[in-house]
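Replying to the earlier thread about multi-chain prediction with a worked example.

Input:
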Amino acid sequence: MKIIVPIKQVPETSQVKINEETGTIIREGVENIINPLDLYAIELAIQLREAHGGSITVISMGPPKAEIALREAIAMGADEAILLSGREFAGSDTWVTACSLAALIEKIKPYDLIITGERATDGDTGQVGPGIASFLDIPLSTYTRKIESINNEHIIVQRLIEEGYETLQLPLPALLTVVKEIAYPRLPTLRGKQKARKIDVPVFCGKDIPVKKEDLGLEGSPTRVIKIYRPQVTRNGTILQVKDKKTLTESIDRLIFFLEEKKIISF
Amino acid sequence: MEKKEIWTISEITQYQKIKPVSYELLARGRTLADELAVPLSAVVLGSAVTENDVTELIYRGADKVYWVNHEQLARFIVENHSNVMKYLIRSYQPQIIIAGATTQGRTLMPHLSVRLETGLTADCTDLKIEKESGLLLQVRPAIGGNIMAMIKTQEKKPQMATVRPKSMKILPRNENRKGKVIPLDINDFLFDGRVTHLGYQKSEEEEVNLSAADIIVSGGRGLKKKENFALIRALAKQLDAAVGASREVVDRGWVSYSHQVGLSGKTVNPKTYLAIGISGAIQHLAGMKTAQIIIAINSDPQADIFKIADFGIVGDLFEIIPLFKKKLKKKRLYS
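Result:
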């Protein structure tokens, strides 16, 4: 079974700082990590390979330093990695990213399964996985929470929906986007780390994929970010302190009054 | 300015009933349609949706309803829905299409936007019309809610966006509203047939549907142990609320992942969010800070959750919650 896992390198969100004046993100000094939700995709791929044999290729589109994220995936247990990188990709929106990654996947086919994280924690769109499936015209299951069974022709999956979950049978090759429930990501092994240090990570650029230059990056992107600003964070709410029995009772009475006043509860 | 329509993609339950998110989309679309002076339409894809039910969409703000019943549309299968929507969009040429940022909308819309070769913005919390151009301005949080981005699809049409559920109030029902229900037949060749829907399982716990809940009661590490999470469930039940949880609590197995609110869980947008024993890690705040009203109960006065709370109590939740429950019950009894 050949599995492809597209991943993304993202800034560690809890460290993100905003320049209050310009409203832009301060990138300096921020650690870059594999998108945490991609770890579940990598883990699932490794488990499937352990059970059914085959190989795992991790791919990523990003700046040269995204190679580090790919090597981390190798350290976890992926077999090979390819980086799609070049100035021509800068400013890509989700449409062009899906288009570029799908073109790379076309180039390295055949494959049986593509597994992605549900979304990346920086852009938070969740659009690239479904977009790749659409470009490649292969069946798609999003929010996949469990693999019930898999053979050479089909995969049966459980997909999380608002009311519960549903079970789908997809013919292979197919694309799954997975949620946290699917697996618990393992840590890199010592052997994996050694392999990650030595392995050659080929870098593909715009010329290596069959997409016209004007269809790549910012130029090819249908959407444009026209403004970025900082949302209002502090609400300056009423904060009460419980010190003793009396303040405890008072606080709760005032909470109930607040709930009534805001019409959240009625009696 | 063009007079092309604005479309909302309605969602239906497995029993072929219109989901409330469909009405939210109409409320959102109504202001845009009025500003552009164009018709607002709802598209309903199902297998047995009744005329009575689709007429409700008119009462809730639609000028037209495109109504498709076909046995292949009984369940949401992205390939089928995408093919049918592409066909309808190519036929009617709407200028804007909005769908819910639900598991359906966030699957269908990216699939469809690729096929239509046009842009899509995910999980918008606000939509406006740009005065000069008449283009759709799409506002969404990014980087864990640290920034807001305003996005535009400049040249391609239609302009597409998914909208965060509960970010818009449903319009009051107005039976005097006039509109047109347009039943459509769909050709069989639009159905893909590759993916089979094998079954549906409702969550064992009724209260999991966080995205549709008006009130969410969420518990965090401050609850100290698994058994204490029952306190959250009991309070939620009393308030007719859904149960949420922080990541720590889910990782410790106190409650299942479907309850997780935050960056690696669900983004929720209820009218009221009660955070109990939750310190307010940035990843958690990212998933709930757009709630209309936030109430926090935590023992640590420095907890970040208080910065975004409209009402907070600093104290021992094991003292506060039982007394709160008791007082609520008493008030209900004597009024």
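Helices of chain B lie at 20-36, 51-59, 78-92, 105-116, 229-239, 247-251, 282-288, 317-333.

Feel free to reuse this layout for your own posts.
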